[in-house]
Write a structure and sequence with these properties.
- Helices cover 29% and strands 28% of the residues.
- Helix 3 crosses helix 5.
- The longest helix has 15 residues.
- The chain has a single domain, classed as Macrophage Migration Inhibitory Factor.
- The two termini are 35 Å apart.
- The chain is elongated and about 60 Å long.
- The chain contains six helices and twelve strands.
- The strands form five sheets. The protein has a four-stranded mixed beta sheet, covered by helices on one side. Strands 2-3 form a two-stranded antiparallel sheet.
- It is an alpha+beta fold.
- It holds the Pfam family YHS.
- Keywords: Pyruvate.
- This is YHS domain-containing protein/phenylpyruvate tautomerase PptA (4-oxalocrotonate tautomerase family).
- It comes from Actinomadura luteofluorescens.
Amino acid sequence: MLFIELFVPKGALSLQEREGLAERLTPARLFSASEEGTEHIAPDSGVGDLFASLSHVVVHEPETWIAAGGPGERRHFVVNVHVAAWAREMGEHLIAAITRELVEADARGAETQVLVHVLGVPEGGYGIDGRMRRSSDLLEMIEQARTGSPAEAPPGTFVDPVCGARVPVETAVVLEREGTTYGFCCSHCRGHFAKRSAPAR
């Protein structure tokens, strides 16, 4: 559920190199990237398939590109990541993972400059198959895409019961329910779970 635009200097990369960079920016790659030794992935294959089917990576080569201070010796990459507004909570992970992938892929390494913009699509601004989808609709699609029961959480992590993401205990959004502590990747997954699992009145 990401739309990623990568801007590269015109003529700087071959078609094969551009395709290689695009592959590095797919959700499957970005969310399997390790951050401080902890994986942030959706372990359920159905959720991964849903993300893959609704995500796109486009590489642009602008005719004109003026970087402040001139081109110098650094290669510039600019990335726009369009996500549902609630998913902006993933911004820190996305920025780190995208930067790491592009720097690793570029032979210039430390001489590579990567600028990442995480842009939230406003509520009601996301459409699939001609229908507007709200955050709650997207979360229901994610939950329905799961093909099995939640995976067992590795030590020091929770497995989000809505989207299946593995989340470090120290950064998880938590909910106590009937003596059980649940951990979530974001407040929206928590809210969705809380509504669905609320005791009947």
